[in-house]
């Protein structure tokens, strides 16, 4: 079609723009409730040497990643001596390398990097270290320790372990107990680690058998679909561990739709909606195992300490540690209030 | 029901012309052979499911489950089938479902209640379809590129609206529609919508001028133009139709999952295209049936269901799914050519 009927095109175009304008009012997501605050006190010491921290993370297309950015920004604002240079998040390895190189050229004092892909970004980590900029590697680890000064991240194996032990204790004395696992995206190594931890923990409880495992994709949609199938496959079971609270929204929906209860559900990650459900205690969700997004706030603390040449308060060392694996605490009704402010949407 | 809408160019005489009643003489029409082989595949799957997990698979609740899980992608596939029959392709369906589902579940939209959510989902779908249609029909863009651009921007906009957050629906009127209490005579409302969309789709394709024009445009656009069909307007309408189906599917997904998320509708485009192709729709256009596409969707959903019931893991599921696509197409081609 070589020629273009411009008048009709214009007409349709105007109509489309009009319809769009009508709807744009509906995109607002402002709600009255406050965003998740970062309750923990900042490092108590007095302001020191000013530090510029460069922060590069992936695109925040998931509640947890969004919370990572929030935590980093909020933490940096608490320190009068910290300036945060935050880049537009990207899942594209090449784009993220470019952003980090820009931060290196700007000569920031310390870099905090949550790579979209740890292995692929190793080279740029090395480059920063060689340029004399210490790197705090957040969660997704680089290939070599030479590429970072300090690694801080969550413990996927520990998540599974703690979920398994929690369920094991709750089902103590129940003979022939049946457990079901709703895993996350199976393509990821972290999913395998979580499952490994879970299986290892369950080995301590001979009365428990894991009868089924299905992998969802960290999305609400997949959580609903896979959970609905699991419920159909297992007419009765005593406990369920779901790797991720985001897909847990879908899983809970499927459980509600099937009208099922009589089992204990443990979540993963620490979403606000999960905390609220645990606090309300009127459904199957009784606990969730943390993969704390507050690690981004701690990474800022570490970066500041690095920039000022200090150690971590409360430890005897003069330097910050080289590696810090966070604990995957189990949040249940007893301690949920304490963790509520860290819950992400 | 399985009548075949035939294009002007490849009517061999065996194929009944569009609008005529199904012809059954010594030979069964091509389309019927296709449909029969699809039904054969489905029957084989049901047999496998029934043997491996008889109690869980052959159960009313499981039938309800399979049909419910099929309804969202099924509605998308009906729209996709029309686009492919006309010689086009719509790669943006998954992204449109995502955008419509998040736009319809924002805090602001939810204030308008059930009608607000339904209206927004449908209008956003239609709006995206309109843009696709204008770009393809009047902007003379290749459908692959135009809808790929829509895929990227709709996903981006969905992410911008949600900020990566999961938007939970709090309206009981919407949520209740997905509960067991809402089933009418054992049929979930979602499945009813799927059935209605399928029937309307079948009627439009086989019993209306619009349907015949769509096939004609896909068969030979130049011949269609010479025959007096406004090819560009027809194309515009077809992408609008696909967008409309995405809007409806987005609403179904909101009801099903009780939420809107920018990751919704992930890879729907591939699932819908695969189902349409398995169902006998020609990727180059000019041929296809709604019944075939819907059977394609049901085959996929049943496979997923049987795998999950037998506790097979994702890796095995993916390998088997690929093998089954190839097998289904080969079997179909063989049965079709030996007739």
TrEMBL record, chain A:
This is Solute binding protein. The keyword Signal applies. It is found in: Cell envelope. GO terms for cellular component: cell envelope. The keyword Cytoplasm does not apply. Residues 28-47 are annotated as: Disordered. InterPro entries: Peripla_BP_I, SBP_2_dom, TAT_signal. GO terms for molecular function: carbohydrate binding. Keywords: Signal. Its main location: other. Gene3D superfamilies: 3.40.50.2300. Belongs to the bacterial solute-binding protein 2 family. It holds the Pfam family Peripla_BP_4. Residues 53-310 form the Periplasmic binding protein domain.
From TrEMBL, chain B:
The chain crosses the membrane at residues 33-51, 63-84, 91-108, 114-135, 142-162, 182-205, 236-256, 290-309. It is found in: Cell membrane. Keywords: Cell membrane, Membrane, Transmembrane, Transmembrane helix. Its main location: membrane. GO terms for molecular function: transmembrane transporter activity. GO terms for cellular component: plasma membrane. It is a multi-pass membrane protein. It comes from the Bacteria. This is ABC transporter integral membrane protein. It comes from Streptomyces zinciresistens K42.
């Amino acid at each position: 079609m070589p020629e273009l009927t411009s008048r009709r095109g214009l007409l349709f175009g105007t109509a489309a723009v009009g319809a769009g304008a009508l709807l744009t009012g509906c995109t607002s997501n402002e709600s009255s409730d406050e965003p998740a605050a970062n309750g923990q006190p900042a490092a108590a010491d007095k302001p020191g040497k000013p530090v510029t921290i460069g922060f590069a993370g992936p695109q925040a297309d998931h509640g947890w990643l969004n919370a990572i950015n929030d935590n980093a920004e909020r933490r940096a604002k608490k320190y009068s001596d910290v300036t945060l240079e935050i880049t537009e998040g990207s899942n594209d390895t090449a784009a993220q390398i470019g952003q980090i190189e820009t931060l290196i050229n700007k000569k920031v004092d310390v870099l905090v990097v949550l790579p979209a892909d740890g292995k692929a970004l190793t080279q740029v980590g090395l480059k920063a270290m060689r340029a004399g900029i210490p790197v705090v590697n957040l969660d997704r680890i680089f290939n070599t320790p030479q590429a970072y000064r300090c690694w801080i991240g969550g413990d996927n194996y520990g998540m599974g372990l703690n979920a398994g032990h929690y369920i094991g204790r709750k089902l103590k004395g129940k003979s022939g107990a049946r457990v079901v696992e709703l895993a996350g995206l199976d393509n990821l190594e972290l999913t395998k680690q979580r499952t490994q931890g879970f299986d290892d923990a369950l080995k301590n409880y001979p009365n428990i058998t894991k009868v089924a495992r299905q992998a969802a994709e960290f999305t609400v949609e997949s959580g609903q679909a896979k959970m609905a199938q699991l419920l159909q496959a297992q007419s009765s079971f005593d406990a369920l561990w779901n790797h991720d609270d985001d897909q847990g929204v879908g899983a809970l929906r499927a459980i509600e739709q099937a009208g099922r209860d009589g089992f204990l559900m443990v979540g993963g990650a620490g979403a606000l909606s999960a905390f609220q459900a645990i606090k309300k205690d009127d459904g199957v969700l009784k606990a969730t195992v943390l993969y704390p997004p507050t690690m981004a706030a701690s990474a800022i603390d570490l970066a500041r300490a690095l920039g000022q040449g200090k150690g971590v308060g409360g430890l005897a060392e003069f330097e910050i540690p080289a590696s810090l694996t966070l604990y995957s605490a189990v949040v249940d009704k007893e301690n949920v209030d304490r963790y509520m402010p860290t819950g992400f949407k | 029901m399985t009548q075949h809408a035939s294009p002007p160019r490849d009517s061999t005489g065996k194929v009944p012309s569009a609008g005529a009643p199904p012809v059954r003489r010594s030979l069964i029409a091509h389309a019927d052979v296709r449909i029969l082989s699809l039904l054969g595949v489905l029957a084989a799957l049901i047999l496998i499911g029934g043997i491996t997990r008889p109690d869980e698979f052959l159960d009313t609740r499981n039938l309800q489950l399979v049909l419910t899980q099929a309804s969202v992608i099924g509605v998308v596939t009906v729209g996709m089938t029309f686009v492919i029959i006309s010689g086009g392709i719509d790669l943006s369906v998954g992204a449109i479902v995502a955008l419509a589902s998040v736009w319809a579940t924002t805090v602001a939209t939810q204030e308008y209640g059930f009608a607000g959510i339904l209206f927004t989902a449908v209008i956003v779908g239609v709006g995206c379809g309109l843009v696709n249609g204008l770009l393809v029909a009047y902007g003379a863009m290749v459908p692959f590129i135009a809808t790929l651009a829509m895929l990227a921007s709709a996903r981006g906009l969905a992410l911008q609206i949600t900020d990566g957050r999961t938007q939970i629906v709090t309206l009981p009127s919407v949520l209740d529609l997905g509960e067991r209490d809402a089933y009418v005579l054992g049929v979930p409302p979602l499945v009813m919508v799927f059935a209605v969309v399928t029937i309307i789709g079948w009627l439009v394709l086989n019993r209306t001028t619009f349907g015949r024009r769509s096939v004609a445009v896909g068969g030979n656009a130049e011949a269609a133009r010479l025959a007096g069909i406004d090819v560009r307007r027809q194309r515009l309408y077809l992408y609008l139709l696909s967008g409309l189906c995405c809007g409806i599917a987005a609403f179904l997904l909101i009801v099903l999952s009780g939420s809107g998320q920018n990751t919704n509708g992930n890879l729907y485009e591939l699932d819908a295209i695969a189902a349409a192709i398995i169902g006998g729709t020609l990727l180059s256009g000019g041929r296809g049936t709604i019944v075939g596409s819907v059977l394609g969707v049901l085959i996929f959903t049943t496979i997923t269901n049987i795998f999950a019931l037998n506790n097979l893991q994702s890796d095995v599921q993916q390998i088997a799914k690929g093998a089954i696509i190839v097998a289904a197409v080969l079997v179909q081609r063989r049965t079709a050519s030996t007739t």
